[in-house]
Amino acid sequence: MAQLAQPVRGMRDILPPQGELRRRVANAILDIYARYGFELIETPALEALEVLLGSGGGENEKLVFKILKRGERLDEELSRGGELSDAGLRFDLTVPLARFVANHLNDLPMPFKVAHMASVWRGERPARGRFREFVQCDIDIVGEPSAAAEVELCSATLDALSGVGVQGCTVKLNDRRLLRAVVEKYLGPLEDPTPVYIELDKLERDGPSAVRRYLDGYDAAGVEGLLEWLEQGDIDAAPPETSEALKATLRSLADQGYAAEFDAALVRGIGYYTGQIFEVRRPDIGYSLAGGGRYDGMTARFGAPALAMCGFSIGFERVCDLVDPALFGRGQHRVAVTCANEDELMRSLAAARARRARDPGTVFNVVRRARNARKQQEDLTKLGYSEVLDGKEFGRQ
Amino acid sequence: MAQLAQPVRGMRDILPPQGELRRRVANAILDIYARYGFELIETPALEALEVLLGSGGGENEKLVFKILKRGERLDEELSRGGELSDAGLRFDLTVPLARFVANHLNDLPMPFKVAHMASVWRGERPARGRFREFVQCDIDIVGEPSAAAEVELCSATLDALSGVGVQGCTVKLNDRRLLRAVVEKYLGPLEDPTPVYIELDKLERDGPSAVRRYLDGYDAAGVEGLLEWLEQGDIDAAPPETSEALKATLRSLADQGYAAEFDAALVRGIGYYTGQIFEVRRPDIGYSLAGGGRYDGMTARFGAPALAMCGFSIGFERVCDLVDPALFGRGQHRVAVTCANEDELMRSLAAARARRARDPGTVFNVVRRARNARKQQEDLTKLGYSEVLDGKEFGRQ
Question: Is the ipTM of this complex over 0.90?
Fold first, then answer.
């Protein structure tokens, strides 16, 4: 196939019947979130670089797809060696949400429970199962300072996953305040521990020797102690208030019958978290299905008061990969009508329309008979058509 | 509000309850298309510039948001004055579809009836009601050369519009082959008439004196004759085969009870059309709700055989503006539970979860009681909550 016909590097096309499956899974998740009272919003794909890059988005910052200025503005910048871009594609939905909340504070209910589902873009090295464009499905609670926010987000996320048939999930929890106390105990006081978190986050993927290398600018004995601590952990190493809140989240989730556990090695490679962090894991899968945490005060970056904020994001593609397509069958009787010529097509189109009106539960797909009728029949069967009628007859109705 | 909190110029945030309304309208349209047998696909937001700009997209080409190359690749281009971008955001869904079909030809049923709904981006001057990011909802038929494609696309599009309560629409039709014959009759032979179409397309918006000015490089008497012709038109000025096909489309739509009429002045400002073109209008609105046409052979640009292609695109925002929100009510009993403190919240979250399981038709929204309880009550009423319960009681269940 010609090079020009390919999608851009690291991105992909979604073919039938996967497109319809994705729509159904997305709606099932959003329906569950709606029943929890999360209100759906949208934000633009593009944000000002000042919004995106002032965000402490960790490694994401390097990965932003920037938009080239246009026309005279570009010519001017090129002639004086200035900035070629002032906007980029969002790399997550959290930073845009904080901007959104700051922008519309007076028009939002408060506390604000919000759902947000859309594509994000990251210029990462493409790899098997990792794409540069992917969909996140986020819920966030703005204005709730207590662990009730964490509990509800974990509860709704696990319910959404089991609602689409992804069972057997566990939510793992940790707290950035606990991590910070431990990191500073072993490595000494740090102005910003984010670079350490970013490397520690690679522990599972790359193993301890790699992480030792990544952290070779730090005291070696300290790094060793830190890595050892992460293996065992101790929820009480945190300031008492932090430990109590973490225990309250775990207890409430356990009381409701969820699988929830403390995970000292859970770090997450994003700079903006300020409190509890969490991920959804399933024992048979080597990556998380959802991730999130508390990021209090991000609204203050955008000129608004520093509000309590906490969110949980489902990796939509990862969930779609686990979904049983049979659970999202189209559930409709599907009838194809194949026609030999334009006259049969015209008659069958009119007849199909009348049949659809009489029979709202049935799909009627009128289409010209292909030269390779057998391949067409197979294709139609694959697309769920249980009946294939002859347009000559059908069009006479 | 701080500048930094604003969306980028020409783009916008969607607040509740509009986000949920948009989801419901989108699903209603896609459900109707599914009943016609159109299969949903997705393509990436980014395409190679070679894909986008080799497309004869007319004025859209100037309006592409280009993606800046990154890292070493950018440094290299800057140092040698090379191309700073090789990819951009799609400005429509038609060009990406042609690439998609060329790429997956062997994996698609043929003829291929396809639905495609997504954001597109155009760097146009922002104006009232015109945004730089907007959603198109397209259906296309690939591999059907006859007017049966046009008929089915017009039928499905008008059914989708009336299905979401947008009644009283008319489809206006013309044919690029007719237009070309007329343009060349008045202006003489042209290698590419696209620049003329782009100016003629502004007739309704800017009026005839403006269009005379836009076309001042052409013979003035010829332009005058052309403008006069567009006012009256004559379907038989086309080559006989073209006139017959246009009449067949009109007849078939009229037979099915649709309002469909020939419109000599319908031009559309896009270069890639090769045959019939069409728009949906409603008499009370000064712009089209949907537009499309035949663009046979676009697949050949991407190294595939030149397939018959025809499509119709709904402007999603324009339709949402006309929809009656009452028709897309959430149809659910909505209960809010307001809580005074963390303890009430934790108990109420668990109680709400049990209630949702028992009563799948009801929304239970647990939230902390705001300091301004009256404003909160008003906000909850606006969001459709008919019952507001006290978490102290509710959490005891």
Answer: yes
